[in-house]
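Notes continue from the previous slide.

Worked example: a multi-chain complex. Inputs as given:
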Amino acid sequence: MERIEFLPHNLVKIDPEEFFSDEKKPKWVVDSLAKVPLVIIRRGNVVDGKVPVGVRGVKREQRFAGYIPTTAVVSGSVITPHALINNSWEDLPDERHELPAIKALPKVAEILKSYNWGISGSVGFELASGQATAKMSSDLDLIWYESQRLSRIEAVDLLKRLNQFGVHADFQVVHGQKGFSLEEFANSTSDTILIKTAIGPELSKDPWVEIDKD
Amino acid sequence: MEKLHYKFETKNPIQKPVHIGVVASGDLEVIFRPTDSDETVVSIVTGSDGFKEVWQNVLDRFFARYPIQANIEINDFGSTPGVVNLRLTQAMEALKDEK
């Protein structure tokens, strides 16, 4: 069975010594993990006890993909994007609330109060780690779990409401390993929508049906 | 951030612009525009540095299969080659739909 903590966008605490990659680890990766040993689960299956994870640095382009043995994940350390929605931003220092992506959170939370949602991306990482990761120009990456099918008009309307706070809100519909962009569904000029899955991206004519298939 | 430019000798001019994909982490947007030039110019802006050769390979394969003549703009936000290929496939489908 798939372990729930190893779903994409979740954050886990690790033993930094055990993090490895096919490529040479840049110095910033070693330094970041020494400071904050928190990694993001990447989309993909756990193979031979190795979990695909990503490391984030303080700069925007500092992202690095690698793996961590399941045994090097600190037990009970998982932080889901959903766990970050309950006013976790109130703990951030005042000056961080000047960032549009963080400033928008209370208003976005009000709009999404009846949804099963979560916060990912640089803002999610900052809320989970306390480390200043979001930038003035950062998007607000949001996740919608257990979604209900929306019409295109409803999707356009929801995105319009989420995007009225001076920051681009990216809303991903996520079920288990699968995910698609609500913005793509709302605005698509193509017959197909791109769905990300554990074994790579695919195109679907009906993402709401596809996302629930095993 | 890196800006990459590629040129390809192509022969099938496109007639209408196409815009595919989204501005989001792990994704990209692809814009095909008709061109007066007799070659295809691809301009890429990417947040992930150091993938010049990976892009070259993806584009080489694409234009070997679809030698379309166009002005192509790609804004990449850390997408994988798999996502790039599907976005280009969608753009080709959208071109066909318009004929």
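Summary box: The first helix of chain A runs from residue 27 to 35. Residues 11-72 of chain A form one domain.
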